[in-house]
User: Which sequence fits this backbone?
């Protein structure tokens, strides 16, 4: 599969002064014939304004993949569905019943994933992984690597990598998204870094809840293979 272009539409880190940074995350994955949104940030107005500045028409989105049922990852979805109710939306089976019921009224094509599997040609979900907040990650096997996108990594990065290996073994990983390292001690962060390296993560782009200290430490280890982008960034 071709490697997608990545556009950070929503993040609490800033890359472009024209855009509004805010706590949350949304990433657009773009291929020649597919635009897939990973998470939708916290507020629809901010998401849509950022998309407008970046020249991305929400009506051109084909699908949205929501990692978990936290406001800062699914909050912008309603605004997108008002524009395009036929958007293909992928959530998992551990979302709140009330959220699912509301989404079923607004979304013409809602997919509720029970387990790991292919959601679109060449694009996979890890399925809901257990945590205080169950979460799914996006897995895309490419020619020379596997792209792994995480929302907040609540289940833990090692658990997520275990799920990825069952879908796409024997390739290095490019890890993009929230890594849930904010507030951890330097020693814990360094231990996590060593685990990621041992598990084959060769490129990394820490966003959202990764934390300032962790972003600095990750850059020390990966150097130019660590991309410290924020909203407005393109990978």
Assistant:
């Amino acid at each position: 599969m071709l490697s997608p272009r990545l556009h950070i539409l929503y993040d609490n880190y800033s890359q472009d002064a024209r855009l509004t940074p805010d706590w949350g995350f949304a990433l657009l994955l773009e291929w020649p014939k597919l635009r897939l949104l990973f998470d939708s940030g916290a507020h629809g107005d901010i998401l849509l304004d950022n998309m407008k500045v970046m020249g991305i028409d929400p009506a051109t989105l084909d699908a949205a993949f929501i990692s978990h049922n936290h406001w800062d990852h699914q909050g912008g979805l309603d605004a997108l569905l008002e524009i395009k109710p036929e958007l293909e939306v992928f959530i998992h089976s551990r979302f709140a019943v009330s959220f699912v019921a509301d989404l079923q009224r607004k979304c013409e094509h809602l997919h509720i994933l029970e387990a790991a599997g292919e959601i679109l040609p060449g694009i996979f979900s890890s399925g809901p992984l257990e945590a205080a907040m169950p979460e799914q990650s996006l897995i895309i096997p490419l020619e020379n690597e596997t792209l792994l996108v995480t929302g907040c990594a609540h289940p833990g990065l090692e658990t997520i990598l275990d799920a990825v290996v069952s879908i796409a073994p024997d390739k290095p990983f490019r890890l993009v998204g929230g890594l849930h390292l904010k507030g951890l001690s330097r020693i814990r962060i360094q231990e996590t870094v060593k685990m990621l390296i041992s598990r084959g993560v060769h490129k990394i782009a820490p966003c959202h809840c990764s934390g300032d200290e962790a972003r600095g430490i990750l850059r020390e280890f990966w150097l130019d293979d660590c991309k410290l982008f924020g909203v407005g960034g393109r990978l």
